Amino acid sequence: MTAVGVAATAGAATSGAATEQLRFDRRELSGALADLGVLVPIAVALIVNNGLSATAVLLPAGLLYVAVARIYRLPVPVQPLKAFGAIAIARGIGPDGIAAGALLTGLIFLFLGSTGLLDVLARGFPKAVVRGVQLSVGLLFLQIAGGLVSAPQASFADASLGPGYLVAGTAVVAVSALLLRRRPITLVLVALGIAAMVARHQGAVPLGPTPLAIPHLDLDTLAMAFVVLVVPQLPLTFANACLATADAAHAYFGERAERVQPGRLAVSLGTANLLAGAIGGMPVCHGAGGLTAHVTFGARTGGAPLALGAALVLAALVFGAGLAGLLTGFPLPILAGLLVVAGLLHIALLRDLQGLPSWALALGVGVLGYAGNLALALALGLALYWGARGLDALRSTLRRADASLGR
Predict the structure, then answer these.
(1) 298 three-state secondary structure
(2) Per-domain residue ranges for the chain?
(3) SS3 for 23?
(4) Cα–Cα distance, 113 to 115 (Å, whole number)
(5) CB–CB of 97/223 below 8 Å?
(6) Is the pLDDT of residue 9 over 80?
(7) Mean pLDDT, the chain, whole residue set
(8) Nearest residue to 137 (alpha-carbon basis) of 43, 44, 248, 49
(9) pLDDT in tens, 78-101
(10) How many CB atoms lie within 10 A of CB 145?
(11) Of 130, 151, 154, 166, whose CB count within 10 A is highest?
(12) pLDDT tens across 17-60, in order?
């Protein structure tokens, strides 16, 4: 049985505690803010280092959050395309190249989701392989948190304060969040972060959106974006944003996650990336780790994504002109601490695996996917799983044949 099918039975406790109605209480709002550790650093880098419009960066993410609140009515996350963003930042790719990659990503996943092809492919992924993907994402969260502490972007104000402060601050935030994760701790942490961010800003904050521009595309730009940005991202988006997110939603919410299917996730993220590409914005996706972050800190309904989406749209349209200066003042220990907690608890999804073969397969896929190549890890994991299933079927056939001849 595949992972999505198996995990659908695992969320009885959570589904019983939640309702179909949207909620906006303290726990829901706390959970809404729990995934900022991924969004903020990549958004800041794309705005400051790559020259993207701040409004174009936040608007697609905000609108997709609002959309998923209505479509799924659960705290389905919205995140930047992590591999895509990391490569674009490292290579200094400009707005046109990023826009081309977003458009191509959107077209690919809109096609895969709307035709049903992605759901067909998802049925071939066993639970252990999907858990391996989730392990690699949890490890990636820990790596990102470590990078915020050991090698912070120079654009952040905290980069000048030294690693000792960052390590100590991250440890305090992570321990506090782990101990108090059943309370709205992220509301307090993010409120403190915003207060520090505003206090560090020099001068008045300009209001209004930053300009949006239609990208200039040609065949060379599209070809570069496909090879450099899209191809490395495809396995992660397919496995984590679609398969693993659907699996985690079923694990947490049971029957309430019926709407959260891999193909539908592909359609929603594909549509959002068409918008991002059209206005020169930040490519976005869903993510199983983000779902764990939202749920860990209290989100149980679509109220969390609706609240965060509305806040991002407001920030994009009202404060876009000042965001480049404001966001760089957000304290890194808060972002890193939230990532540490989300990463550890996301890795804990492996606890429902049974038997040494399943554990070995999940650990192999997870470690190889994190340290090496996720596409190769998936291919090897599927080959091992289905190869073993095929050998078992062959042995069973031979035993039945021997038994028939013996009679």
Answers:
(1) coil
(2) 3-350
(3) coil
(4) 6
(5) no
(6) no
(7) 89
(8) 248
(9) 999 988 998 998 889 999 999 999
(10) 26
(11) 130
(12) 444 689 999 999 999 999 998 899 899 989 988 999 999 999 99
Residue 71 vs residues 29, 83, 265, 268, 349: alpha-carbon distances, Å: 19, 26, 10, 9, 25
Most confidently modeled range among 2-6, 268-272, 384-388: 268-272
Helix runs in 162-319, H state only: 163-179, 185-200, 219-225, 231-236, 245-253, 262-279, 288-296, 303-318
Tokens at 163, concatenated:
């690693």
Q: Could you say which DSSP state residue 10 is in?
A: S
Q: pTM of the prediction? A: 0.84
CA-based nearest residue to 79, from 279, 282, 252: 282
User: At 5, which amino acid appears?
Assistant: G
Output the CA–CA distances (angstroms, integers) from residue 140 to 133, 305, 363, in the order listed.
10, 23, 14
| 250, 76 contact by CB (below 8 A) | no
CA 264 to chain centre: 16
Amino acid present at 61: A
pLDDT of residue 6: 35
3-state secondary structure (DSSP) of residue 165: helix
Amino acid sitting at position 389:
R
Confidence of residue 407 (pLDDT cuts 50, 70, 90): low
Q: Give SS3 for 11.
A: coil
Please name the residue that has the structure tokens 């654009």. 155
* Residue that the structure tokens 């996720």 belong to: 374
Distance CA 263, CA 111 (A): 10
Neighbours of 333 (CB within 10 A): 24
Distance CA 282, CA 57 (A): 5
Q: For residue 190, which of 346, 343, 66, 40 has the smallest C-alpha distance?
A: 40
Which amino acid is residue 334, in one-letter code? I
